[in-house]
């Protein structure tokens, strides 16, 4: 990855609290390039704060790209990537290392459909938007998972056993089986350290335009956000204070198109 500028390195040294607490994911990564803050990532209005509110976030549209992200839909430019070739991902603010234990996942909904796909539609207000423009898309479609990073195997139940701990970059090779189009790509870290099975969600979305030759089955399985998570899900029921030996991953239960991007660190 590119070396941070002297200014960024100095700020990192002066901000130890950010290296041990809350974080953003404002940088999109394409191969060896860490792009500028919010160049391809949709900003939100939640600052460094996690989302939970006794589980209310699970029923909120803010679960998609974070609180107030709809206010910044038109700002990012789509990152140009090639399915099956490029390594993509996210970096935290100032290279902040994630301290809280918990899984990191990356997911995406199918791209907004072009105008031609609505030629015979009787619905005067179809959604996703007919423009095919991700800048007009709120992520209310079906989301499929392409990457996840959990715990070591075997795991001793400690915070140090999470593969996400002390990392600032999360990257994976974009599967070849991604159809061509513009996408929201969402990163989520679900921090599991609070007591009584409470959680903390950190999430952010990037705008991505995928070049692809794939024309096979649509990606799946999928979930809605909100709607795909509940407080009864095994991943959310995980009690990190009980020294568990296994950590279920957030839904969907399977990744697309296979498990190649499970616990893989590039």
Automatic annotation (TrEMBL):
The UniProt record lists the keyword ATP-binding: no
Signal peptide interval: 1-21
Catalysed reaction, written as an equation: [(1->4)-beta-D-glucosyl]n+m + reduced acceptor + O2 = 4-dehydro-beta-D-glucosyl-[(1->4)-beta-D-glucosyl]n-1 + [(1->4)-beta-D-glucosyl]m + acceptor + H2O
Region annotated Disordered, chain positions: 100-122
EC number: 1.14.99.56
Cofactor: Cu(2+)
One BP annotation, GO: cellulose catabolic process
Molecular functions (GO terms): hydrolase activity
Keywords attached to this entry: Carbohydrate metabolism, Cellulose degradation, Disulfide bond, Hydrolase, Polysaccharide degradation, Secreted, Signal
Any Gene Ontology CC annotation: extracellular region
InterPro entries: AA9, AA9_LPMO
Domain Auxiliary Activity family 9 catalytic: 22-242
Compartments where located: Secreted
Keyword Disulfide bond carried by entry: yes
PANTHER family: ENDO-BETA-1,4-GLUCANASE D, PUTATIVE (AFU_ORTHOLOGUE AFUA_1G12560)-RELATED
Family listed: Belongs to the polysaccharide monooxygenase AA9 family.
Protein name as annotated: lytic cellulose monooxygenase (C4-dehydrogenating)
């Amino acid at each position: 990855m590119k070396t941070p500028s002297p200014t960024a390195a100095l700020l990192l040294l002066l901000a130890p609290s950010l290296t041990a607490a809350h974080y953003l994911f404002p940088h999109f990564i394409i191969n060896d390039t860490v792009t500028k803050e919010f160049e391809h990532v949709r900003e939100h209005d939640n600052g460094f704060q996690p989302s939970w509110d006794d589980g209310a976030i699970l029923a909120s549209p803010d679960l998609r790209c974070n609180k107030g992200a709809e206010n910044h839909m038109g700002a990012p430019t789509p990152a140009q990537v090639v399915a099956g070739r490029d390594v993509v991902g996210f970096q935290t603010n100032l290279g902040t290392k994630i301290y809280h234990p918990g899984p990191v996942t990356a997911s995406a909904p199918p791209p907004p459909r072009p105008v031609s796909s609505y030629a015979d539609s009787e619905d005067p207000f179809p959604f996703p938007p007919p423009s095919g423009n991700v800048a007009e898309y709120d992520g209310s479609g079906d989301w499929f998972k392409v990457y996840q990073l959990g715990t070591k195997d075997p795991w001793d139940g400690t915070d140090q056993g999470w593969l996400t701990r002390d990392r600032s970059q999360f990257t994976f090779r974009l599967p070849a089986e991604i159809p061509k189009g513009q996408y929201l790509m969402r990163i989520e870290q679900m921090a599991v350290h609070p007591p009584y099975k409470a959680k903390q969600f950190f999430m952010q979305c990037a705008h991505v335009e995928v070049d692809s030759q794939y024309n096979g089955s649509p990606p799946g399985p999928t979930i809605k956000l909100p709607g795909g998570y509940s407080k009864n899900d095994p991943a959310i029921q995980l009690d990190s204070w009980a020294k568990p030996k296994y950590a279920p991953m957030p839904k969907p239960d399977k990744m697309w198109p296979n498990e190649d991007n499970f616990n893989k660190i590039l």
